[in-house]
Specification:
single chain, 145 residues, alpha+beta, Immunoglobulin-like, four-stranded antiparallel beta sheet, three-stranded antiparallel beta sheet, 7 strands, elongated
Length: 145
Amino acid sequence: MVNTTLATHFDWAPFRRHTVGFDNVFELMDRFLDGQSVNNNYPPYNIYKNGESKYSIELAIAGFGEDEVEVKYADNTLTITGNKEEKGDTDVLHRGIANRNFTRTFNIADDVIVNSGSLKNGVLSIELEKIIPDEKKERVIKIKS
């Protein structure tokens, strides 16, 4: 559990003095500390780093079909939503596979793009890649006299 006293009184000023253009990072941290972006544990997920510039996110969504899952990407936010219609199964004696609706969001860095998604054997996989533009790659700056 996050200590909300710390969250509402944390001063980011010492960190802001040494950074330029990272305002959104501090806003994300404030939201996290305030508990606004804390999700429940459903569905469970893994995040992998595959080499230097590729990532993948896997969500365990057993029982959901392709037509019941929606993946959206906008404003550096990846949102995955699952909507399962309620069925009047009165013959079910035990339901251990969760079929509840969900929304899971991930904040994606500016230089990461979402390449593709696939659903196989109850696991939704989203493939991402970090693209570093030429202007952000390391280079030597000539000093003029």
